[in-house]
Amino acid sequence: MQPLKIFSGSANRPLCEKICDYLELPMGQMSVERFPDGESFCRIEEDVRGKDVFIVQPTCRPVNDSLIELLVMIDSCRRASASRINAVIPYFGYARQDRKDEGRTPITAKLCANLLECAGADRVVAVDLHSAQIQGFFDIPLDHLSASPVIDEYIRSLGYAPDKCVIVSPDAGSIKRATKHVEALGGALAIIDKRRHSGSEVEQAHIIGGPIEGRVAFLFDDMISTGGSICGAARVVKKMGATRIIVAASHGVLCDPAIERLKESPIDEVVLSDTIPLLPEHNLPQIKQLSVAPVLGEAIKRIHNNESISQMFEAIKFRIGQYF
């Protein structure tokens, strides 16, 4: 078994520190800098020859800088003769560009997959990809993890009775995700019919299922970007008589005008994972951030030891609450 080394890029160093704490390992020493003209530069400050290397770097804002930095770190490890290079990408940017929905447009998610492979990545670990078919864009192994175990465990800790809750899918594309949360948490299921008019403008037209009146409503999505969809869904649910509205998403992208929309919405609590770090301006009283460090840490340990990933939840369940 080759020694394990974990390195962090600049996009989310606090998450990597928590992963290292979970694994009781020191973080690898790597310098990541910018030249005056903005070019990325990486220097590995310790020996990685023959090592099993994991690089933690979400491709979040600034997306292009984070992506290039990840590619540069992978290339540095490859040229330093690492035995295996694992790219741990808690948030995979460009994932929404996963198909051609009109002529003369790119499939940028596939392009990013090609770039990671060409740079020298041997494996990718991602959390809640925007669409599951992105796994097929890679010709190297990809472990697709989820923040759901952490989110569900937190929601259970709130103590709401299942018969007083309703799980709401904010659009038809999120039905499968909502159904899994119903299986884990109980409660009724409701679906909102969403009509998208542009990249930032949506309309919530109808609601199917329920009941909603007099219940606590939980809205689940993979990400909150501009907040238009989730805030619109929250207003519909409030109009239908929900007593409390809790929104949960794996990725808090939170582009403008998301924060203003969340402030003006009837949402009581927003639960996000730490796949993307929150900026100071995102520090709203209703935002609760949970860590996916136990999920990623356990996955890294099992990948390193060639153990099953699918059976790991029971191993981490008792430790998730430490990261609330």
What would you say about this model in short?
With 324 residues, this protein is α/β, with parallel strands linked by helices.
Structural summary, described in words:
This protein is of the alpha/beta class. 31% of the residues lie in helices and 26% in strands. It contains nine helices and 14 strands. The chain has helices at 13-23, 63-79, 108-119, 148-157, 175-185, 228-239, 258-264, 293-304, 313-320, and strands at 4-8, 30-34, 40-44, 52-56, 84-89, 123-127, 142-145, 165-169, 188-196, 202-209, 216-224, 244-252, 269-273, 287-290. The protein has a seven-stranded mixed sheet, sandwiched between helices. It has a five-stranded parallel sheet with strand order 1-4-5-6-7, sandwiched between helices. A two-stranded antiparallel ribbon has the order 2-3. Helix 5 links the parallel strand 8 (165-169) and strand 9. Helix 1 crosses helix 8 and helix 2 packs parallel to helix 3.
Shape call: globular
Uncertain residue segments? none
> Numbering strands along the chain, what is their spatial order in the largest sheet?
10-9-8-11-12-13-14
N/C terminus separation = 33 Å
Strand proportion, as a percent range, falls in 25-35%
Helix content: 25-40%
H-E order: EHEEEHEHEEHEHEEEHEHEEHH
What is the number of strand segments?
14
Query: Mean pLDDT, as a whole number?
Result: 92
**Could you state the oligomeric state of the chains shown?**
single chain
Secondary structure class reads alpha/beta
Q: Number of helical runs?
A: 9
Largest sheet: 7 strands, mixed
Q: Could you tell me the radius of gyration in angstroms?
A: 20 Å
